[in-house]
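Hi C.,

You asked whether I'd gotten around to modeling the 96-residue construct. I have! Everything is below, sequence then structure, no commentary in between.
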Amino acid sequence: MGHTYAITELAGSSERSLEDAIAGAIATASKTLRHLDWFEVKEIRGHVEGDRVGHYQVVLRIGFRYEQSHAQVVAEREGRTADEGELPVSEARPVT
């Protein structure tokens, strides 16, 4: 079974570097989001103060994986798909 991802967008900034802006944004996101798997730099900007760079800013798209239920994890390890009866109601297919 594959994974399902949510994608969120956020901006990080730093007075030191682009790398610090990226690392800071990811560190902050990881405090409230689990299973961060990837990021993409969407935009790079900066703020000029006099004759130097005052701030670097990056806009990131961050992908994080939805958690699997325990039943799905066990079924995957056993090489099978979890039966609907094993899944919590929120993960089972709707009744038609």
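If it helps when you're writing up: The CA atoms of residues 17 and 56 lie 6 Å apart.

Thanks,
B.
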